[in-house]
Design a protein that fits this description.
Blueprint: H1 2-19, H2 21-44, H3 47-69, H4 80-92, H5 98-113, H6 115-118, H7 133-147, H8 149-165, E1 166-167, E2 170-171
Antiparallel strand pairs: 1-2
Length: 185
């Protein structure tokens, strides 16, 4: 009877393990290994690895946002954790190159066609922003090319007006200021 009880105990353990396999495997496949591989990519300095793991983390963020949005509906899809595990493994394993495929065919075309609005969210590091005087000229020329000389003159006029209104390290605001059309789009 003791042997039979031990066997059923191990059976219960394996049943419990396989019933909750997704609870253990999804974090390992979607977080632990990519975290380790990302650290390795940073330390080795390989541009290909940087690119691969940046694409993965973009896709992981999209998946997480998708899950947050439809979390109430997830109850109706009991197979979702297994589907997510399979998809994540396909994205993560470099042999399949799934992250590059999904990014290049689905994410990139969406953001490249809407690049003007997406660029508004990008905040460059201090090293990127106009480190040389020529960079300011290039940015001004690009602004004039994209928005026209009138928009550039309006921007300069607004900047001059704001600088003349500021005194003693504080800025007074003109309540009657009327915003011009947004020429970024």
């Amino acid at each position: 009877m003791g042997v039979r009880g031990a066997a059923s105990g191990s059976d219960n353990f394996f049943n419990l393990f396989f019933q909750n396999f997704d609870v253990l495997a999804v974090p390992v496949a979607s977080l632990a290994y990519p975290l380790y591989a990302s650290i390795r990519a940073i330390e080795t300095g390989s541009q290909d690895d940087h690119h691969q793991w940046l694409m993965y983390w973009v896709l992981y963020s999209i998946i997480t946002l998708f899950e947050l949005i439809i979390s109430k509906l997830m109850v109706w899809f009991p197979f979702w954790p297994y589907l997510k595990l399979f998809f994540t493994c396909w994205l993560v394993i470099p042999y399949f190159n799934g992250a590059a495929h999904v990014y290049d065919n689905f994410v990139r075309p969406y953001f490249v066609t809407r690049q003007r609005s997406v660029n508004l969210w990008y905040v460059p590091s201090k090293n990127d922003v106009y480190s040389k005087p020529e960079d300011v000229l290039v940015a001004a020329e690009r602004y004039i090319h994209d928005n026209g000389p009138e928009a550039f003159e309006n921007m300069i006029h607004r900047a001059n007006r704001q600088s003349t209104m500021s005194t003693r390290n504080y800025t007074s605001h003109d309540d009657n200021y009327k915003y011009d059309e947004d020429h970024r789009y």
